[in-house]
Each structure stands twice: as C-alpha cells, then as structure tokens.
Write a structure and sequence with these properties.
Oligomer: single chain
Largest sheet: 6 strands, mixed
Structural class: mainly beta
Distance between the termini: 17 Å
Strand content: 35-45%
Strand order of the largest sheet: 1-9-8-5-6-11
C-alpha cells in the first residue's frame, strides 16, 4: 500500500456548502482519473447525540457526476472513527433509501450527490472517510471534523487487548448506527483473538489473524459481509492515516493474499471477487496481509458476520 493522499482538515463546515478535501490525485498516482469528493455536515456544527446529515458531492474536477460502480455491494462507503478510538461507523447512502422506494444505488443521485444520516454520540474530533470506484479505478477522500458537545477521553484500560461489539444487521448487511467498542458493548457469548508478530515494520507486509468463537466453541459458520470475509479500517491514533483493507479465508496451506487499498485504493477488479470465501460458510479464522506505511500507533477495526449479527473488533498495532 503506497501513500495515496493526506488527511484533509474540514473543521469549519458551512451548512449546505460542499467542501473538497485533499487536492485531486494525479492519474499516475492511482491509475484513475482525478476525482473530487466533497463533504458538508448539516447542521453546522454537528451536535453530539443528535442526527446530522452528511452531504456528499462526488464529481470530477469540473464537477460533472461520476459513473460509480457497485463495489463491495455499495456505490459509496463512508467510515467514521472517533478520536477516542471506541466509536465506529460504516454506513452507505443506499442504506437510507428503502428498497421498495428506489433501486439499489439510487441514493447516489445523477448529479453526483448523496446524503446520509449519522448521530455522533459525543463531542470531539472524528475521521470521516469516503470510498468510491469508477471504471477508471478507485477514488477516496478523508476528512476530519469537530462535533460540539461533551467529549469523551480515550480509555487506557486494556488498551492493547482486542475489544468486541455485536450489532444486528438491518437487512442486506445494512447498519446505519454507531458501534461503541467499550464496556457497554453487547457480546452475546462471542469472543475473538487477534494474533500477529510482536514487531511490525513500516512498509513490510505482515499477516494478522482473527479467530472467532462463541460460547467457547470455534465459530465455523461465518459468512461474507459486504462481499468480503472481513472488512478492515486501519486508522492512525492521531487520525493522520486511514486505510481500507479486506481479509481472506486462508487456504489449506494457510496462505493469504492482500487485496486492500489505502485511502480509496482498490484492487485491479474494483474489489469484486470472493476474497477466498467461495464456501457459504467458513471460520473460525480469517487472515489479512497488512502493510502500515509509517511508524506509529494504529487502531484496526475489523467487521465480520455470523447470521444477522455483525461482529466488530478493535485492536491496536505498534509499528516501528
């Protein structure tokens, strides 16, 4: 994963005004034509505990709409991470339009705009990452926004131990709310262990494994979630880096191959593919080959699925 963009600060949003993030990337950097992804949050500023509208504008640099592909079952993916590293969201414009009202993808309008709703649970700083794909390749942008209200400090208890939260999918792998990875999280007998090397070097591909259990027994009936065995969001603790990756079901020889991207970087097929999960169910282990671009402390948010339950895992990685 080579660096493809910097984090954009959008801290003074004007309601109804779309603000672009980082400058469009050159085609030579990503293999794709430049794209413009803007974000506005209404009301401005967003208030903790109250639903806010996230208005996206996804166009080319001349503000002409892009023809978006469906990748990993959605036209656009939006990942939200709180600076407390215990607040997580993975939402999509399509999930806010009932299927009996409009066809899939209709929430991303012909003029290149889309709207989502999200209730930031507390005040403070949040990362908002937007990820789309076209025939020309991947496009993405990352913003940092401030939310008014009482902030919550980062807990240092069990800081390096995996934390698990279980939420119920709303249908079609949709989940539009916040996931809290703290002591209030529902677990329902699920447990997870995350393994990897003690020393992780920057720029070095490293294999990590997630092993799931329920009520003390290996969980062998996992299923794909949004067309992948495991969705991964890698976030630097200071919100300066974001990467979107996917896990694989290891083959009989234990091999795993990475298909992820940083800041909107997809595989050559727009991440359409089985990711090693051709069987209807699998488990208890999922693996991913991850490359961290720079030294520092990172938090990895992983999403797997078992029946209608979405299993969200937070773990930390120290990179030298």
């Amino acid at each position: 994963m080579t660096s493809s963009r910097t984090i954009a600060s959008a801290l003074s949003l004007v309601a109804g005004t779309i603000l672009a993030g980082s400058p469009p990337l050159a085609a030579a950097e990503t293999g794709a034509a430049p794209a413009r992804i803007g974000l506005a949050i209404e009301p401005d500023p967003a208030q903790a505990g109250r639903p806010a509208t996230l208005a996206l504008e996804i166009t080319d640099p001349e503000r002409r709409p892009l023809d978006l592909l469906t990748h990993h079952a959605r036209k656009a993916h939006v990942v939200i991470v709180g600076a407390d590293m215990a607040t997580f969201g993975h939402i999509h414009p399509e999930d806010f339009v009932p299927e009996d009202v409009a066809p899939a993808g209709a929430a991303v309008l012909d003029d290149g705009t889309a709207r989502l709703r999200f209730a930031f649970p507390h005040g403070g700083r949040y990362l908002v990452a937007v990820d789309v794909a076209t025939d020309e390749g991947p496009h993405g942008e990352t913003f940092v926004v401030d939310v008014e209200g009482e902030s919550r400090g980062r807990s240092r208890t069990d800081a390096d131990e995996p934390r698990l939260a279980v939420v119920e999918a709303q249908g079609g792998d949709a989940y539009t709310g916040v996931v809290a990875l703290d002591d209030t999280a529902r677990r329902d007998g699920y447990a997870v262990s995350v393994t990897g090397p003690e020393l992780v070097g920057a720029g070095e591909p490293t294999v990590f494994s997630w092993r799931f259990e329920r009520d003390g027994a290996p969980l062998t009936a996992l299923r794909t979630f949004l067309d992948a065995p495991l969705h991964l969001a890698l976030v630097a603790e200071d919100l300066s880096r974001f990467m979107h990756e996917h896990g694989e079901v290891p083959d009989a020889a234990g091999s795993v191959h990475g298909h992820g991207h940083e800041a909107g970087r997809h595989d050559e097929h727009g991440h359409a593919g089985s990711h090693g999960a051709s069987a209807k169910s699998f488990g208890p282990e999922i693996q991913a080959r991850l490359t961290f671009p720079e030294p520092g402390r990172y938090v990895v948010f992983a999403q797997a699925a078992h029946g209608e339950n979405l299993l969200v895992v937070r773990s930390r990685v120290h990179v030298r």
